[in-house]
Amino acid sequence: MEEQPLILITGANGQLGQAFRFLQGAYKDAELIFMDRSQLDITNAKQCRKALETLLPDIVINCAAYTNVEKAEEEVDVAMLQNGTAPAFLAVACSLTDTRLIHFSTDYVFDGSASKGYLENDPTGPLSSYGQSKLAGERGVISAGGDFWIFRIAWLYSPFGHNFYKTMLRLANEKPELSVVSDQFSSPTNALVLASDILKTCSKTLHDETFELPAGVYHYAHQGQTSWHGFATEILRQNGLKTPVLAVDSEAFPTKAKRPKSSILDASLFYHSVGIEPITWEQALTECNEINAQIQTQYT
Prior knowledge:
Layout: E1 6-10, H1 15-23, E2 31-35, H2 45-55, E3 59-62, H3 76-96, E4 100-106, H4 129-143, E5 148-153, E6 156-157, H5 164-172, E7 178-181, E8 185-186, E9 189-190, H6 191-207, E10 216-219, E11 226-227, H7 228-238, E12 245-248, H8 268-274, H9 281-298
Parallel strand pairs: 1-2, 1-3, 3-4, 4-5, 5-10, 6-9, 7-12
Antiparallel strand pairs: 8-11
Helix pairs in contact: 1-6, 2-3, 3-4
């Protein structure tokens, strides 16, 4: 019997790692191994190399990251270590073991001044320490010289971890009204749909000899765009919550980290290259609500 391909997923306890774990039972095209930081700290180059040489996975999906945008302004060195330096350690280990690396970056590598959706080769210009650390990570992965796919994503949410989606659902049940920023625009990304599409892409590269997605940077986003206010309004509408959502300018919520005004990612290259049909961000939200309802039912 032919040995099944192996996919190693780092950062297993983070939001995206949990999304992949949720899909594990239904995925039959490879064995998935999950490692959290206690099992593999990617800021340790020796640990990266040892793990790759021991397991010899076909693909590594790196979900380990520093994700607190605000705190990154205070913990600049920590954010740079985890988002900038560590991915390079992992990429070097992957290169030495002939392993494909899938790494995730962010829309925050852009300054938000574009009048249309960002393409992969558009000039970067991060406004925050978080964005700078993620851009450094991209460059580290590229410079390692291995086989890699970097996916830039925006406004990630899911039923797992800490995110805008879960915060809005909680606050809508606690407060008489909500005030949400209406002058920042992108496309909210359902981590479960993202993880599913990444696994579909893995299946193609592992089992379809005619498929080849070249190494490089790709944008991943659902179709359409909205503001944080529009996203919050749709979250509440789909969940039957009547709490009023007031639209406010970003100046109403001063932050340490400067955010891009418009960080819409044009993901047409990915969808065209892989042959996956995109869905709208509203459809992706509906899917998240369905999964969230299933999860809540299990624990009540």
